[in-house]
């Protein structure tokens, strides 16, 4: 199935008339399946490559025509790749659908807002889009974000090497016909100097609830900072860390090879934090089991009872329930249920499932209803 | 069955070797049955009469021999009344059993501590005791509290007149053989001037959760203060109002007849507050039903899930659950279950049910276990 969601559907808000909207909603992306190495602590691994086309101004300085040309060329090239391809022009894409893509981490909030080009005008009309593959949502290519091309590759669990391999394949496929801006000494050129070089950013989404309970979380975060890693929440830059989910990423790529960056993350820093969290979990299970059970079961009890839930509280509850499921303190909830809810409780997911925009109060009620329904005891335990 | 719990059982702590201990624990006292007038808002009504024997120093100034004599005379008189009588000498009564009586509101914490006589010595050895009737715990007579005799009469719901009738009967029965300290102009003489006159205090235990939710509680409390009423928590003087339970009592009795005091409480002040709370409940049900359901079901969810519970949190949860049951927002919990737990979650009740003193951490675990067990869904709803 080849789908194209671009610009054919007028200004109607939030409807489910595009098949990809309901298709995305009905499914848990591969990176949230709770599989792969160290899946007890690492939710997902992500590789992002920043690329720009040779001989054209970077997005912030580009003219509308330049950006249009970038968009046309990159899409044309990507649309030859694979089946089940979803290519979306974000101009004219109804707001709730765009937000759905942000919530599923297929595009950045910045790309949706359209603030990339510095030239004046209706930012929303700036040429920008995304190409992804519906099968598993492991790959997405943003066009005309801060860089002309941003390839994103996701994997569940702690598996940066596989994520990098997929990203490299797309990278090669694009480079087969399009020239990248590349400097023999500096490497790939990017709009922001911190990305110059490999243009690669490696991230892992960690779940660190035991460190949060034992009070050692701040120490772990400081250690990550000291190793020049950025620490963000579940929804990326500037978001709170509700649920004790943390995204760790390398900050600069200049002067180091992809291999060096990868090794640092995959072999040194992240394994240490994983071990630190596991040790805390063991300590909790051995010496404060009742305290742990109390926290976890209260969260499940609230998830099964509340009639109004904010997005932040929902994530908090899901984080604790996830800990309980992983440690087998909770035995009647499945991990994919928890992970699926991490997306489904978000505003655009809720609105689109409901069939139209929801007021904030109604959204809190709809979120609580969804949570109760999906968290219903399966009769075990 | 005539039982006498005095002083025969040595210093052993907390055991259940006395039949009355397990008998009290296994039962909900009449005043917590949730019956009677206005039982949706009024938990119970209480009348207390303060009396002193003529020609003997008030307790604070009494010698040990005087207090001994008061104790002997009053007990002798009371022990002729009714069957199922429980007469306890608090000297030598194991601490946990004494606390059980306090938690059931059969004696005051001050009487248990033995701080009444101002003479130096081992306060715990001061002669003091209580006589009650096991059948329903509606009557209790404390001996050598601040006054020689304090008669307490309890009723479930809003029924001060019945409570007064029962208190008067005991009062008459004592006066049949013992002379009270009485002044023709002042009335009954008491250790504290605020009780001089009728020696009567009328109290009602109100449940005001809707006023607490709507934020109008402070206004209601100020109004009660302005009408010279004392406002206390569930456990009397100096206790917090966890669960939104409030005890309202008249403060002075001098210069007013029993009938005047009774009418003021029974016909004016309390009915107004009852109506105020009912109005708030209606408002919540009509305009903020989801908010109400959220609060109430969260409380029930936590009660059914927590593994550790403090006494204060337990009362808070029970208060909200009680509101849910009364308003039929919760349909699978019975009111007597809620009321029974209000006693059963208290420290001495927990320790004695456990068969021995509990550490604070173990007590919180035992409280949570008890709460979960009794709150189990009956499958309704």
Description:
- The structure is a homodimer of 381-residue chains.
- The first copy, chain A, is of the alpha+beta class and 381 residues long.
- Chain A has two domains: 19-279, Creatine Kinase, Chain A, domain 2; 288-374, no CATH class.
- Chain A has helices at 19-25, 64-78, 95-103, 109-113, 160-175, 209-214, 217-226, 258-287, 289-303, 311-326, 335-344, 347-354, 360-375, and strands spanning 3-4, 42-51, 85-89, 129-133, 139-143, 149-156, 182-183, 187-188, 200-207, 229-232, 245-250.
- The first copy, chain A, has a nine-stranded mixed beta sheet, covered by helices on one side. A two-stranded antiparallel ribbon of chain A has the order 7-8.
- In chain A, α3 (95-103) crosses α12 (347-354) and α9 packs across α10 (311-326).
- The longest helix of chain A has 30 residues, at 258-287.
- The relative contact order of chain A is 0.13.
- Residues 1-16 of chain A have low confidence and may be disordered.
- Chain A binds chain B through residues 290-291, 293-294, 297-298, 300-302, 304-308, 365, 368, and chain B through 290-291, 293-294, 297-298, 300-302, 304-308, 361, 365, 368.
């Amino acid at each position: 199935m080849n789908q194209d969601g671009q610009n054919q559907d007028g200004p109607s808000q939030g409807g489910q008339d595009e098949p990809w909207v309901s298709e995305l909603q009905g499914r848990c992306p591969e990176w949230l399946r709770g599989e792969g190495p160290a899946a007890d602590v690492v939710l997902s691994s992500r590789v992002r490559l920043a690329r720009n086309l040779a001989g054209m101004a970077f997005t912030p300085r580009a003219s509308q025509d330049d950006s249009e040309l970038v968009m046309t060329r990159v899409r044309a090239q990507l649309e030859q790749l694979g089946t089940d391809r979803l290519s979306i022009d974000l101009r004219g894409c109804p707001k709730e659908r765009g937000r759905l893509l942000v919530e599923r981490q297929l595009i950045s909030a910045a790309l949706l807002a359209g603030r990339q080009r510095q030239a004046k005008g209706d930012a929303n009309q700036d040429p920008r889009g995304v190409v992804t593959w519906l099968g598993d949502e492991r790959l997405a290519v943003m066009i005309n974000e801060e860089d002309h091309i941003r390839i994103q590759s996701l994997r569940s669990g702690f598996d940066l090497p596989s994520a990098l391999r997929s990203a490299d394949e797309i990278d090669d496929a694009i480079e087969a016909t399009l020239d990248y801006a590349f400097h023999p000494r500096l490497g790939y050129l990017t709009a922001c100097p911190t990305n110059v070089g490999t243009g690669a950013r490696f991230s892992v989404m960690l779940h660190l609830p035991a460190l949060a309970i034992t009070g050692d979380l701040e120490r772990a975060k400081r250690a990550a900072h000291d190793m020049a890693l950025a620490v963000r929440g579940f929804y990326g830059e500037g978001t709170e860390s509700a649920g004790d989910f943390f995204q760790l990423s390398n900050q600069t790529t200049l002067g180091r090879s992809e291999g060096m960056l990868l090794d640092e993350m995959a072999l040194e820093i992240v394994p240490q934090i994983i071990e630190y969290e596991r040790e805390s979990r063991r300590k909790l299970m051995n010496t404060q089991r009742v305290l742990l059970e109390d926290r976890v079961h209260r969260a499940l009890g609230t998830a099964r009872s509340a009639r109004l839930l904010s997005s932040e509280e929902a994530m908090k509850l899901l984080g604790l329930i996830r800990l309980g499921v992983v440690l087998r303190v909770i035995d009647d909830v499945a991990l994919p249920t928890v992970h699926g809810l991490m997306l489904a409780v978000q505003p655009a997911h809720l609105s689109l499932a409901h069939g139209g925009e929801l007021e904030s109060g109604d959204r809190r009620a709809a979120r609580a209803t969804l949570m109760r329904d999906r968290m219903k005891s399966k009769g075990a335990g």
